[in-house]
Amino acid sequence: MRDTLFEGFTHGPLTELPPAPDEAGLAELARSVNRAARARLGRSLSIRHVDAGSCNGCELELHALSNAFYDLERFGLRFVASPRHADVLTVSGPVTKNMRVALLRTYSAMPDPKWVVAIGTCAADGGLFAGSYAVEGGVKDVLPVDLHIQGCPPSPTAILKGLIALLEHVT
Amino acid sequence: MALLDTIKHHNKAKQHRPWPRAIANDDGWQQAIDHLSAGRCTLLGLWGDAPLVHMALMAEDFGDIAVLSYVCKDHKYPSVAVRHPPAIRLERAIYDLFGLEAVKSPDNRSWLDLGFWNIRHPLGKRSPARKVKAYEFLPAEGEGLHQIAVGPVHAGIIEPGHFHFTANGEHVVRLEQRLGFVHKGIESLITGATLKDAAKLAARTSGDSTVAYAFAFAQAAEAALQVKVPARAVYLRALMAEIERLANHFGDIGAICNDASFALMHAQTGILRERTLRAAEACFGHRLMMDVIVPGGVVRDMTPDGAAHVQTLLTEIRRVFPRLVNLYDNTASLQDRTVTTGIVRPDYARQFGAGGYVGRASGRAFDARRSPGYAPYGDLTFEVPVLDAGDVNARVWIRIREVEQSLALIDQILSRLPDGKFRVVTEAKRKPCEGLGLTEAFRGDVLVWLRLDEGGRIERCHLRDASWFQWPLLETAVENNIVADFPLCNKSFNCSYSGHDL
Questions:
Q1: Which of B123, B129, B219, B273 is the most exposed place for a label (fewest CB within 10 A)?
Q2: Contacts of B204 in chain A (CB under 8 A)
Q3: Where in B313-457 does DSSP place strands (E)?
C-alpha cells in the first residue's frame, strides 16, 4: 500500500482541464432556469441518477466521471444516494413501462428547485427501443426535461460539458 | 457419441448450424430432462418460438451442443423446471412473452410482465392486458424475522431491480429477486429487422458486453448464412473482446473493493479502466467499441497507430497491476471482508451451468473460448483459471488471473494479426436458415440463436445472458451472510439486469 500511496504523491495529477460548457446545452438551459434558484444553490449541485431502462452503457460512462481523469467533484457536482438530497435528476435509457412509476416517485421525492437531465440517445426519444410495447419513450414523455445530453453512450467529456453548462446557468 | 444421439428425436432441421436442432416428442423431451436432472448435460437456454419451445443443451465435457424443439399442444409443453430448477425463470419468461404454459411448472408467477404493459404475451397471443394480482414473495417463517425491501431504484449508479430480504437481525435468511424492470422488448423489436438493425439491437442488450453480444450475434448470423469471415476480422474481434474483458474486470475488481470501503483500489483500477477505454477509442473509434462487429466481419479496420496504443496500454497495465494485486493480497482488513463471504456451492454452479467467474470460482471449468471454442481462440494459448472456494475472494482472484490471461492473449493477437480484408458481404440464402452463436463475455457465456427468412430478415432471435443462471445463485450465496455484505456479494457477481430483462 505504501508504494501505491507514495506514487500518488510523486506523480503529477491525472486530472484533465475542464471542458468548455456545451453550447447547445447552454441554449436549451437558457429557457428553463430561474434566477432565484441560482442564488440559493451556490456553485454546487447534488445529482441523483436513475437508470430507467438503459443497456448500462450510460451508467459505465457516468461512473467514469468519478475517476481521476474527470474528477467530477472538483466542479461541486456529486452523486448522492437519496433523491431527498438531490438538485438534479439524471435519467438514462428509454423509459420502460416497468420503470415509469419508480422514476416518477424518485422525481417527486426530490425537493424543489430541481432539474432533469436526460443522458444518452435512448433518453432523448427512446432511441432504438422507441415503439416497443414495453417502452414509454424518451424521458420527456414522462418528466419535464431541462437538458438533453446526446450520445450512445455520451462520453464522460460530453456528459461533463452538459453538467458544466447546467452549473453555469443554475449558479 | 453426439449429444443428440442420446435423445429420441425426429425431423432434424436441415438449415440449423453449426450444431444440430431436432424436434422431440414427449419421450425425447423427457429424456433430455432426465439428462439435465442427472447432470449428464447442462441447460444452455430455453426459449419460445410459438408454437415451438426450444431447449439448448451442452454435453458434460462442454464439447457438443444440441437444440431440441417441442411442438406445443394447445399452448402447453411439459415443464423442464419441475425436475430441473434452473429452468424456472426461463419458463416464467416464456409464459409472459408467448403465453406458452409449462405443464406442472413449480412456479407460475409472472416474471418479466410486471403488469404495466398494455398487452399480454406480446410475442404470442397478444391479448389485452388484464388486472394483475399483487406479486407473492416466497414465505420465510420463524421467530424474529423481518423484511427489507430494496429497489428497483438503488443508492448507487447501477441498474434497477428489486431485492426482497428476510432477515433475522443482521443475518439474511432469504433473498428473493424481482427483476424485469428494464425489459425493453428487444426480442420483439428485433423480429422482422434487417441484419444491420438487428446487430445494433443485439449490441445494446447489455452495454458492458456490447462486443461479446455483437460477436455472438455475428457468429449466429454467419453460421446461418454460411459466411466465412476474413482472418483479419476474426483477430480484430478477439482483440476487442479481450479489451472489453480487461476494462470490465478492472472496473469490477475496484468496485468490489470499494464495497468493502477500500477506495484506494477503486481509484487505481478506475485509472486502468479509463486508459483501457481510451485505447479502445484510439483503435476502433468508440470507447465501448459498440457496433464495430457486424455479420461478415468488422465495419472498420483498426486505426494505423492502434497497435501502438494497445502496446502502450499493456506496458502501463503490466507496470501497475501486479502492485495492485499485492495490495489486494496483503490488506488483511479487505481479505477479512471477502474471504468466506457469499459462497456459491460447487454443485449449484454445476447444476445451474453458471458461466464466467461465478462458475469458475466454484470449480466449474467452463469457458466458451476454450470449449466448444471459436476462432481465433483455438490458435491462441491461454489458461482457464479455476478455483474451488466459491467465495467473493475467489471471484476476485479469477478476475485477476483472467486479466493476466487477456494481456497474454492480446500479445499473441497483435503479433499474429493477419493482413487483408476485414469484411465480406453477407447475402440472404433465399430460404429460411438458423444459426447459433456462443461467446464468452467478461461475466460468462452469451448465447444468440436466430432464424432468418428468405429475404435475410430476422424471423426470430433469442439472446441469453449468462446472468440468467447466475442471478439464482446469488440468492443462495447471500443466505446466512449479514445484510451489510450483500453489496459485496452482489458486486462480485455483477450480474446484468438489462441482459437478463431484455
A1: B129
A2: 55, 57, 128
A3: 433-441, 444-452
